[in-house]
Amino acid sequence: MSTFRNVFLAAAFLAGSAGATSAEVVGKVGVDWIGNDIIVEAVSDPEVKGITCHVTYFDRSLIDRFKNGNWFEDPSNNSIACRQTGPIEIGNIDLSKDGSEVFRQGMSLIWKVLAVNRIYDKANNTLIYLAHSRQVTDGSAKMSISTIPLYGQDVVWKNGKPQ
């Protein structure tokens, strides 16, 4: 993990990490000779057991930062794929259209954040995971979604299935 990434994560933590869960780096792919990487992290939903999301993002190298400026942030590009990785047990999840944030990670020294939100689509009995970048100004339109259909699955709802 680059020195700048460590600074970003520390700043995000100090700024108050409402992200409910942590991620584990499971892959790191070098994309060019100057040290830029694509990072792949496994993220577990703290309220939905048996679901794992894999989130990717770009990690700029020190050379790229010197060369292109914009020293204190990584690009907003990200991707997400979520799958059932065990028996599904759903705890106390937010059923509103806004859903809830299940993960967040700093992508700049202070303001830019990669966030993952979970939304329950009751009509289609599906969990939606949305990865997006949040910025104080000029919010990013770069986003990615992944869905977990619950239809036909043996799902345990701790508080009873929403009617």
Give an account of the 3D structure.
By secondary structure, this protein is mainly beta. It has one domain. It is built from two helices and nine strands; from the N terminus they run αβββαββββββ. The strands form two sheets. The protein has a five-stranded mixed beta sheet, with no helix packed on it. The longest helix has 12 residues. It is elongated, with a radius of gyration of 17 Å. The N and C termini lie far apart (45 Å). The N terminus is likely disordered.
Task: Identify the notable features of this structure and list them briefly.
163 residues; mainly beta; 5-stranded mixed sheet; 4-stranded antiparallel sheet; 9 strands; 12% helix; 46% strand; elongated; disordered N terminus
What topology does this entry show?
Blueprint: H1 3-14, E1 23-30, E2 37-44, E3 48-59, H2 62-68, E4 78-90, E5 100-106, E6 113-121, E7 126-134, E8 143-149, E9 156-157
Parallel strand pairs: 4-9
Antiparallel strand pairs: 1-2, 2-3, 3-4, 5-6, 6-7, 7-8
Write a compact overview of the structure shown:
The protein has 163 residues and is mainly beta. It has one domain.
Whole-Å distance between the termini? 45 Å
What's the tally of helices?
Answer: 2
Q: Would you tell me the structural class of the helices and strands?
A: mainly beta
Low-confidence stretches: 1-20
Indicate how many domains the architecture comprises: 1
Q: Please give the share of residues in helix.
A: 10-25%
Describe the sheet with the most strands: 5 strands, mixed
Order of helices and strands: HEEEHEEEEEE
The tally of strands reads: 9
Strand fraction band? over 45%
Round the Cα radius of gyration to an integer and report it.
Answer: 17 Å
Overall form: elongated
Physical arrangement of strands within the biggest beta sheet:
1-2-3-4-9
Integer average pLDDT? 77
